[in-house]
Design brief:
Blueprint: H1 6-11, H2 15-35, E1 42-46, E2 49-53, E3 60-64, E4 69-74, H3 80-88, E5 93-95, E6 99-103, H4 110-121
Antiparallel strand pairs: 1-2, 2-3, 3-4, 4-6, 5-6
Length: 127
Amino acid sequence: MQAISVKEKYANYELNERAKLLEIRSLLFEVAAILDKDAVLQEDLKWGQPSYALKGGTPIRLDTFSDGQVAMFFHCQTNLIENFRTIFGNELQFSGNRAIIFDISKPLPKKAIQFCAEAAFTYHQKK
């Protein structure tokens, strides 16, 4: 069985899910460019999900969550979700210590996503 590419993975999502996931993906690339214009944001599939990582950070994975929802997934052994919950507890929806969930019918909280992406992409640099 041949592995699929990230592009093929996105093509397999429902149209409205794909649009929201690609919007988040675009924000991740924007954050990476702001952090380091010369850095290469690594994009590949991890556990069957599009995954994004910068050297010195921890990866962010994107995928559907449940009907009408998509999510940004973070390594569960980091304190990222705990920190995000403290900062954005009234603004974002969380799943345990691993995900931020977004309703595909609502606008994305872009500033919050950018903050969370920066925290993940620089996670090991701050320790």
